[in-house]
Amino acid sequence: xxxxxxxxxxxxxxxxxxxxxxxxxxxxxxxxxxxxxxxxxxxxxxxxxxxxxxxxxxxxxxxxxxxxxxxxxxxxxxxxxxxxxxxxxxxxxxxxxxxxxxxxxxxxxxxxxxxxxxxxxxxxxxxxxxxxxxxxxxxxxxxxxxxxxxxxxxxxx
Length: 157
Hints:
two-stranded antiparallel ribbon, alpha/beta, disordered C terminus, single chain, three-stranded parallel β-sheet, Rossmann fold, 157 residues
């Protein structure tokens, strides 16, 4: 059995300054392969970047383990950033599977589209309507606007 650290590994970094700096340091200390050749990924960024990486893998149809290190703002889903002992940390990492849900949505023009839902918001309230606007700057962070019903953001409701 091949140890995780011996598998071909790609390195991805978000555009955040801290992630870009960490990428430079890791590339100087370790060997990485292009994403297309990778059996696993080390992702540098925050939770949003990790989720984006997972979504992109689903779109490509090639899934592999991802070891995330926090170089973003939240990092709740990520491991702590450390340059030392990366191989050992990857080998000790406990794997878990993510089973994305499927979101079927109908556009205003009537087109039905399907997206994987890994960490999306669920709104299920009787008599409340929502409109999701994916035209924002960040395609992974749609604006959700209430269109009917009581104000769901008011704690009194």
